[in-house]
Amino acid sequence: MTPSAERAPIAADSALALPKVRLFQLLEACLACATIEALRKQVIAMTQLGPARGSWESAEVVTVRWGLWRDQLRQIQDSRSLERARHYLKRLLRSFEQVKTPTFSDINLCRWQEYDDLWTDSLWHIERRDRSGQHSGHYWGNFVPQIPHQLMRRFSKAGDWVLDPFLGSGTTLIEARRLGRNALGVELQESVAQETWSRVQREDNPHRVQSIVRQGNSASFDFRSMLDQHEIDQVQLAILHPPYHDIIRFSSLPEDLSNQADVDAFVDGFAQVVEGVSRVLQRKRYLAVVIGDKYAGQNWVPLGFLTMQRIQEMGLNLKSIVVKNFEETFGKRSQRELWRYRALAGGFYVFKHEYIFLFQKP
Ligand SMILES: C[S@@+](CC[C@H](N)C(=O)[O-])C[C@H]1O[C@@H](n2cnc3c(N)ncnc32)[C@H](O)[C@@H]1O
Q1: Does pTM top 0.90 for this prediction?
Q2: Cβ 192 under 6 angstroms from ligand 1
């Protein structure tokens, strides 16, 4: 009997909580088998090890992804020799016993295969925006929650502080609450800051983290004082999603980066924000910039590369450039044919991507 025959109804990516003590007993029993035949029979007992329930319910659990767990057991069962099967068993046992994490995340590298929902490629195609909980998508110019979700899981630990100096509708802060990260957000527009503060408070806070919102101009903001007020030493991750210069005018305020007279002034203003933020960022930690380009007249203006270069000149190390698709807004969808015609006639391409630049503070 194969594991898949027994557990057909369980989806491959569903998480299975196995009772730890019993799991370890079974693994040790397998290792004690004297023949490969006996070991294979013993593995069947492990395939039958269900989610923690009954008397095991309150016991410590080990969470596995069902598909991966099934494949690992099958690999042991299919081993031709006792030595090979033992090798796989010992590896499995080690992966449950040991914890090895990078300095900047909680990812247990001993069980790296369990994290198949974390993206490691530089091309992100996000089909649909996550609209759950307080993520409504109502704010013109917000980013999809999957961006801060991925960044926080890869580049911060539970209990870390995340700083977002272009708060907008608070996507980062909402996601931070879900993931157990404390977060600080600064937003120029008073009314937006207030509304976002209320929305963030409405999001559940299962990990009892802190969410702090301030109104201010991030180009001149005293981040140090804000941190001191809350007895925070440093932040461990910064996520910056500025206006893409004047593509969307967020307000009529002169300090608004979307109101800067030209691209140079925009890049200068943005650089001031990065300087302030990186001063309170812990060494070896990450700063992510989410930005797109624009057209001016008939020409492509590479806001992404211009800002990227400026940050490199400040001494931060460029770790990755991610290209992410643009979701099509309702308005744009109805104009798709028109834009296609214009692109063919004018000799250019229609924007379908933006960037996520990843820097590490040396
Ligand atoms: C692209 S939006 C960020 C959206 C946000 N990521 C979200 O998901 O809602 C940029 C935000 O930066 C704000 N902003 C513009 N200039 C600013 C400045 N100098 N200081 C602080 N916030 C600023 C705008 O009001 C706008 O809300």
Answers
A1: no
A2: yes
